[in-house]
Amino acid sequence: MNCGAVVLEGCLRSGLGEGAGFTSLDWVTRQFHSKLGFVPHPGTLNLSLKGGDWDAARADMEQAPGIAIEPPPGFCAAKCFTLVIDGRIQGAAVIPEVPDYPADKLEIVAPVALRDALRVSDGDCITLHLLIV
Asked: pLDDT under 50 in the chain at which residues?
């Protein structure tokens, strides 16, 4: 496993629309605030990533402890990794610990509405500086 910073490029894609509900839950907002230092804007930014750099980063993220988001009964756990988007917006990658989670998908949370702040839409690509620890 290689821990440390990695630079990745991902392209925006529409999600299932479930991120806003998850990021608005009291226990989620409390843990994000205490563990990551921000309350997430409702929703996630979904990215599609491919290639060798992503495959290696994904494998490292699966092995790394990350920052645990610990659920109450009935919810799935997740782990997070801090990141900076386009060199200016801090946020976190969220990896839900669910079976069959798509290998090419990465969900991003931040304290701002990322699509608006970055002025991007589906198909646009952004650069991430991701810290895997």
From this structure: none
Residue written as tokens 């304290």?
111
Helix, strand or coil, per DSSP, at residue 61 = helix
What CATH number does residue 123 fall under? 2.40.30.30
Number of domains in the chain: 1
If you search the block for the tokens 């946020």, which residue do you land on?
91
- For the record, the structure tokens of 115 come out as 């699509």
User: How far apart, in Å, are the Cα atoms of 108 and each of 1, 10, 42, 83, 85?
Assistant: 22, 11, 11, 9, 9
pLDDT tens sequence across 19-35: 656 777 888 899 999 99
Q: Which residue segment(s) compose the domain that 8 sits in? A: 4-132
